[in-house]
Amino acid sequence: MGQWFSTFFKERGFDVSIWGKSGKTEVAERLGVRFAHDLHAEVTKSDVVIISVPIDITEQVITEVAPLMRTGSLLMDLTSLKTGPTRAMQKYAPADVEILGTHPMFGPTIPSLHGQRFILTPTKDRCQKWFPLIREMLEENGAHIVIVDPEEHDRFVSVVQGLTHFAYITIGATLERLDFNVKESRRFMSPVYDIMLDFVGRILGQNPYLYAMIQMENPEV
Asked: What architecture (CATH level 2) is domain 2-148?
């Protein structure tokens, strides 16, 4: 997602730099953006800093980066959970730094934002300048914006993502335990079974760590 939004912001005239703990510059070169060799220096001069890392280390990265940010800048995250990251941003970002929790309800394979749902969790009195600008940019590019508080977000996604993923993971695990011949079973295909297999395949074919963190890191699940 970090790579996707690097391209998104670059195409809209932003001067984009990225950083990753590996220190490898190949991704930056491929995207045509700068690699931030000195992360701390880059953060102190940036207008917007976006945290896009695995869920289980998001708060840790926020604690390291947020205190370095300059007056009037914006700190955002791109995380499937909102309560913990938002509290961390509130706690560690200086009072004159604005914060905005976000959750794009899509993956990095989409070609554009058109028709995609994008959740924003602005914090009262901490996002007066940047919130309308970010919202306008997303809406201009076709995104459907949902505004909600972090706690309500986590309650809803515990079902929308947590329960949904759990159900399909359970079906996949059951088929494996049964040593079930899915290919052969297509001879007996019903429309609902066809749809179910498609969704099981989509869940099991993607990043298992992302799905594990969505299951394990949201207390509401």
From this structure: 3-Layer(aba) Sandwich (3.40)
